Structure formats: structure tokens, C-alpha cells
Amino acid sequence: MKKRAITLTINGEEYSLNVPVHHTLLQVLRDHLNLTDVKYGCGRGECGACTVLLDVGKGKRKPILACIALAATMDGKSITTAAGLSKDGTLHPVQKAFVDESAIQCGFCTPGMVLKSVSILEKNSKPTEEEIRFGLEGNICRCTGYAKIVTAVQAASKKMAAGKR
Amino acid sequence: MAESVIGKRIPKVDSREKVTGQAVYAGDMRMPGMYYGKVVRCWEHAHAKVKKLDFSAALKVPGVVKIIGPDDVTKKPYNTTVMKLLVPEIFGEVFGEIADLNIFNRVVKHQGDAICGVIARTEEAAERAAAKIKVTYEPLPVYMTVEASKAEGKKKNGYLFTPLKPGNLAFDLPESFFPGKRYGWNDKDGKTAEQLFSKCDYIIEDTFYVPKQKQCQMENHSYVAHYDERNRLNIWTSTQMPKPVQVLIAELFELPLTRVRLTQTTVGGGFGVRLGMIGEPHACAMAMAVPGHPVRMEFLREEDWVASETRYPGHIWLKMGFKKDGTPVAVDAMYSARKGGYYTHGSGPPFCAAAFLHGMYKWQALGMQTEGYFTNEVPTGAYRGYGNPQITFAAEQMITKMCNELGLDEIEWRKKWHKSIGDETWLKGVTFASDGLNDCLDVAAKEFGWYEKKKKYAKQTGVKRRGIGLAVMQHTSGAFPMLLEHSVCTAKLNEDCTVELIQQISDLGTGGHTVITQMAAETLGFPMEDIHLKSGDSDMCGFDIGAHASRTIYCAGPATIEACESVKKQLLERAAQLLEANVADLEMKDKIISVKGNPQKSISAVKIAKEGVYNYIDAATGKTIGIPGQIQGYSSFFAKHCSPPYGACMSEVEVDIETGEVKVLNLVNGHDIGKAIHPPSVEGQLEGGAQQGLGFVLTEEYAYDSKGRVLNNDFTDYKMLGPSDMPKAKIILVETAPDPIGPMGVKSCGESALMGPIGSVANAVYDAIGIQIKEAPITPEKVLKAIKEQGLRK
Question: Which of residues 504-563 of B touch A (CB under 8 A)?
Fold first, then answer.
């Protein structure tokens, strides 16, 4: 089994890993590191349950799908998962909005959905409802009909804007 | 007194652990010494005999521990469902329930049937070995329609699927119980629906098709099973029905209940798919093959499509007769379903389709037949609505057509002729105790602007045509008296006067844990933070039938309330003794018990709780301080009624007559909840249910190739509505008809959400183009075909 040594920063913590070259980022996170807040939903990039945020420099992050990213290509990268969004027990405003708006039912899509929502707001702090809905495409929820998720992203947008002022 | 939490928009008790990803689902379990199990399934064929099984190459894969086949596991056949625990044995016999499934199979009856299992040290090794197992099949002809299965069954006068069901007929309604093989009633002179049609002024008759829809819960089926050193079989699963599944496992492996421990983990969605056993028998069989080692088994997404149950597809024929003023006289109906490869729920959902037809309108006579034929498809089972989405799609289209043709206002017709308080519900002998349907219709019509839109869209031309549609529904709150509705709750008062509720509450994301905690807090007058619900462990929890039939709050809530009332009563009784007062004169506020009108004469409930546990001896007097004994409340509650909720839904669509595309623009759903204990959870059920209902009516269905293999076992080819596809949905919770029997006035909401969107969108398409599309899902192809064949409304 061919392996490659990589250094990967997850939620601010640096990991030195020796990963089989055919293993996905999702396998490494869930099976090698037991970071099970990143979910397996489909394994083929269709449902978004495995969404993580990839640091692309200059304080910018973009969502990627861990189930179709090869871990061996992640050397030197830094990612954030749902567990890393909250700091010292304080929820990220998007997480707080999901809780306050009851935008969570079974919770399985939630970590990915929250990260996708964070990425929408980091790109555009005041998205329209339509922009939120299109932005969330690729992340499937079978419980909520998306209504309260959209409301939560809107609420977070307002809170974050107010916080900056 | 702690402020009441009933009806408040508070955060759900489990939301923080879910939003940080810390909630543990079965697939997140990791244990020391854990092995990995993989079920080898038949992907190539939908009907075949296994001629040869060759494990030799697979056994050489590094990391493989053991491979087990049909001869290595119990040969006891089983049925996936928990139905036999829900009904007395006699009913099972009447309905012809059978056990026709094996853990590993020598005959493949549908794509995805399990053949054998691999146990390995890593998941990857298990998968590599599974790919190296050589199975030699003898392919058999596949039967994918009722007609084909029926014809073949007749031809041989025998069976293809099981000798227990000659002619391939999985079920119909037995004559012994259902005269004329129909569920329903005759008129006051004993005339059947068929006999009454001659008295009708207006008769309509039509056949509708309902699709094979998949639940698509986001969490894949995952299990950890462990046969431990005390010879106990432990299983962690996200089943909806923990207690009944524990019993089924115990029966299958012939173990006493003390040796089977089932732990329900966080459940990543259910919608009915987890209403019985899925992978539990396979995970347990593998764990028993390697005692001492936990075995983790996780389905791939594509496995879910072929190895867990679906909605019952088929044709529904309806014949309705009316007087010319719209008086409903008679309805005769037939639901002919494709069963799939195994018996599972048998006549359950089609029978319930008949039952929900039974519960809706005041016919003089009604009769509905159901039948199901085995096919080489993925077996059908429970899916949210359990027959009601199917019958609503057909029946509500018929009612609207009748109103149009007789020139009646369809809102007013439904107000006048729906069954109401005192009338028989979906089940004989149980009557409606409350009715909020007219209020649902009024508030929905106002919010939607029904009459304004009706006028506005009356004469449309052009490529994009708008239409509006209405559908009403009634459903159920638990399934008494057809099914057992039993829940046990123990409320344990801790020494610091907080409460542990020990009760199996199956929360599929529906908010059950939050609502039960609210109900306990309200009953005791304690803050919600002082209540903790312990659920999920069969070693600890008393009996509970599980999450089915929208029952949890209606049927299990009363157990919580009774147990908490008992705790409160015991506290007051001890206070009465200590204060030398009468219980009737006492009140409890903020955990202080005092004599009404004399607050000085009081005692702290915290002190009573503490002294009950730490009943020390007073050194000075030699007597104990306080009253000894830890307080516990207990309830073993059997629901003895069923209070169906009603709902009225209105939809607005735009149909493109050149592409056939149907776009839902707007949806208003008024729901007769009785009392919403946690309004966001009720809204969430209705909003989310709309997504599944719209999928049923517009996009979702299995596609098969000619060999019976599923073509769309993924989220790209099986199209569910995404965030940008979903219309604006306005949910209105109607609380004008609190139920006198439901705890705190509640009626259910879980399954109710699908029917309104399904019926109203179908009717809105009919309104837009003047043609009824009788096959769901209403795809662009079907719309274009109908326009071509029937022509647009002038």
C-alpha cells in the first residue's frame, strides 16, 4: 500500500500523517483520526454531509467535499470542521443561529450545512434569500425542507453585520 | 413558579451537540478491538439462484478474519417488521403475515439481496475481500409488474417467491374479516357502495398511479454489534423502534431479552425506513461469529437503495357517486400494489390507504379493496404517511374534479362533507374528538388569497400557465386500536430535586426529546434545565413501541405526564405529613411547598428530596431526619384513543406548456395541531414533509433497467427538491381545536405534512392546464404527453 507523508492542519492543530495515497480526506478524518463530526452521506460528492472549509490564504476559506478529495493531495493545507467553528465553548454566529431558529432536525447534514453557510456569508455578508438558496445547493437535507436553514443564515447575516459595526 | 415552557420557541435540547458535530450516530461508534463487517450483495441480478459460493480468493486478502455464508448463520426465516408485536397473533394470522427472509440467501429475489458476510480488521480489507468472493448465479426471469407476477403465478398455479403465498399474491383483504374483501361500511339499509351507484346523479371513475419513493434519510444505516464475554449480544443502531427490534433480534437468535442489549444512537432521519430490522440481523450474525470483538458495519449509500424498504407503488382505482347537489353517496376503490421481493409489512400501507379514505368524507357507503403481488423489486415497507399520500393523490383529484363539474365551491364542499366530531375516524369504533379543519381551510384561504387567485387565473393563455390547487387530509395520532400503543416512563427524583426521566423516546430529529422534556417540566413546575431525559438503552428503559404512526407525543407524552404527576403527588404527601396539613391545601411554587394562603407554613421540596435519600439518624434524638425513600414516579401507559389531526393545503404552480415543467411557486399549509408544545418543531415537520410530498408528486421514483436493476441509486439521478427548488412555504399552526384526549390538547404532525402538498399540487396542475395528470410523479414528459393527447383547456 503506497503511502505519503503529509502535514495537515485541522481546526488549528497540526497533524503529521502517513496516508495511503488512495484514501480520501473523509477516510483520514473519520477513520484515522476519529474526527466524526465530518459525516459520510454518499461518498460521491452529491450530498454535502462531508463539507469542510479549506483555507485558501489571505483569511479566505472555501468549502470542499472531503469524500472526493484525496488526503495525499492535502499536504500543507489547513481545514476547518464543524467542531472547530466554535471557540472555547462559544458557538460561531451561524451555529448559534441554527440553534436559535431550530434549523436542525436529525442533525446529520448539519455540520456540513453550517460550514457551507459560513462560506456563503464569508463571501457575501448580505446575501439575498435567492443567493442563500443557490449557495446551499449541493448540501442535501431531508428533514427541514430548508426553510429554517435559510432563516438561520439570514439571522446569522444580520447578527454578524451588527457585530462588525 | 418556573415560567411555563409550553408553546415557547426555545432551542431544542439536542441542538448544540448536533450543530458542533458531537452527536454520536451509529456510524460514529469506535470501540477497542473493533472489526469491520461487509455484506456481500447480489448486484447483477434481481432474480437468480446461487449455484456456487467460492470464498478461497477472498480469504487470502490480508486482514480478513472470517467469511460467513448461509450455512454459518441461523436458518430461521424472519420478517423485517415489528408488526407482529403491534397486533395480537390472531390479526397476524388473519392478514397472513409470514416470515420469508433469511440473513444470507441462496435465492435472490431482488437486486441487493444479501449473500454472505466478510469480517476483517479494517473496512478496506473487508471491501477488498468482498469484491473477491466468487458467486455463481443461475439467472431467473424477472417479474416487475403486477400483471407479470399475477400471470406467472396463475400459469403455474404456484409460486415464484414463497410457497406460503400461492399465485404470487402477497396479500389482499381476507373475506373472513372484510366482507366483499373490502374495508368500509354499508348504508343504513345494508346496501354496499356498488349497489348505491344506481341511485347517483353523477359518477366519476378513474385509475391513478403512485410511485416507488425512497425515504433518503441522510444517515446511512450503520451498526456496531458485539457478542461480549458475558455472552450478551449488544447492538448499537439508529433504528426507529428500539424495543421491538431488540425483541426481534432476541427471537431470531433465540436469546432471552436479558442477553440482548440494544442501544439506540442519535438517529439520522427515519421517515419509516427504520421501522423494523434492516442490517441488524447481519451485523449481529457477524458479531456472533467473532465473540469478543465488536463488529462495525456501515452501508454504502448505494446499498440503501437496494437493501432497505420503500413506499408501496401501484395503481389506485376509484369510483365515486354523488347526488347532483354534491351529496357524497358511494365510493368503491381498489389499490393494487407491487410488493417487491418480500412480504415485510404485507397489506399494512394499502390497508391504511383504505383506512384514510374511510376517515375523510361522509359517504353513505364505502368499500375499498387492496392487493399486492410479489415482484423482483426492492421490498416495500413503511414510509411517512403509510398509504395516506397515495390515496390523497387520487381521491383529492377526484373531489376537485367533481366540484368543478357540478359547479360547486370546493372549499365549501369539503367543509360540509368531511367527517367531524362524533364520526368514525380511519378505524372503526374510534370517533373524532376534535375538528379544526374548517379553521385550517379559512386561514389557509385567507393567507393564500384563494378566491382572488381563482379569479385571476381563470382564463390563461400563453406558454406559462398558472393554477391553484387545494387538498385536505386527516391522519392519525398513534394507531390505537389497530396497534398496541404502550409507553413506560420512570421519573426519578434526584437528591438535589432534579429529575431523570427514564423513557425510551425515539427522536428521529422530530423534536421528541425536547417536547417530552417540556411536558415533564410543565407537569412538575420545575425549570427545563432540571429535567434530563435518559433514552436509548434497552438495559435501562421500560417498554416503548417506538416511533411510528406519528405517535410519540400523543401516546408517550401521557406516560411522562403520569410519572411526573406521581413525583409531584409524593412530594406533596410528604410535605403534608411534615407540615401537618392536608395535601389538598398545599401548592408548590419554585420548589417551595406551602399551605395556600399561608406562605409562612412551608417546606422546601429540595429538603424533602435530599432527606428521602440521605435519611441520617439525628444524634440527639436517635430518630431519622425527614421521610425516608427516594421518590420515583412510574407510568405504564396504554393509549386508548386516537385523535386524527386535519390539514388543508393550497398550492400555486406554473406549468410551461412547451417544456412540460411544473414549478411550485407558493404553498400554504394549515395544520390542525390542537396544541403546539414546541412550535418550531411542528413547523419543521410540515416544512420538511412538504419537500418529501413535492418529491412524491413531481420528481421522485425508482427507475429500473430491463433486468430489474436500479438505475438511479444516487442523489444525482434520484432527484429530490433542493434548497433552490423549494417554493415559499407558509405553515400555519391552527390551535383552535385542542383535543380533549391528547395530552395538553395535542394531535400529531409528523406524517401529516406530505398529503396536502401532494394533493394540492396535482390539483394546481389540473387547474393550470385543465388536464388531470393521473400518474405521480408529474414529470415534464407526462405533462407534455397529456397535453398532446388531450389538448389544452380552451
Answer: 508-511
Q: Is the pLDDT of residue B523 over 70?
A: yes
Give the span between the Cα atoms of B53 and A113, in whole angstroms. Answer: 44
- Asked if residue B715 lies in contact with residue A47, where contact means CB atoms within 8 angstroms, the answer is yes
CA distance B412 to B398: 16
Q: Are A35 and A98 part of one and the same domain? A: no
**Alpha helices (H) along B342-501:** 348-358, 388-406, 410-417, 437-448, 450-456
Q: What span, in angstroms and rounded, lies between the C-alpha atoms of A119 and A104? A: 18
What pLDDT sits at residue B157?
61
**Residues forming a β-bridge with B371:** B172, B336
On whether any CB of chain A is under 8 Å from the CB of B9, the answer is yes
- Write the residue in B24, B217, B729 that is nearest to A147 by C-beta: B729
| Span B168-189, pLDDT tens digits | 999 999 999 999 999 999 999 9
What is the SS3 assignment for B554? helix
Indicate the class that CATH gives domain B418-475+643-790: alpha beta
Q: What per-residue confidence (pLDDT) applies to A165? A: 55
Q: Both ends of chain A: CA-CA distance in Å?
A: 54
| pLDDT of amino acid B158 | 64
Beta bridge partners of B730: B668
**Which among A109, A134, A147 has the least Cβ separation from residue B687?**
A147
Neighbours of B90 (CB within 10 A): 9
Alpha-carbon distance of B563 to B561, in angstroms, equals 6
Q: Does B252 touch chain A (CB under 8 A)?
A: no
Q: Name the fold adopted by B486-638.
A: Aldehyde Oxidoreductase; domain 4 (3.30.365)
Q: Are residues A26 and A90 both part of a single domain?
A: no
First-last CA distance in chain B: 66
Sign of CA dihedral A84, A89, A93, A97: positive
**Per-residue pLDDT tens for B23-82?**
999 999 999 999 999 999 999 999 999 999 999 999 999 999 999 999 999 999 999 998
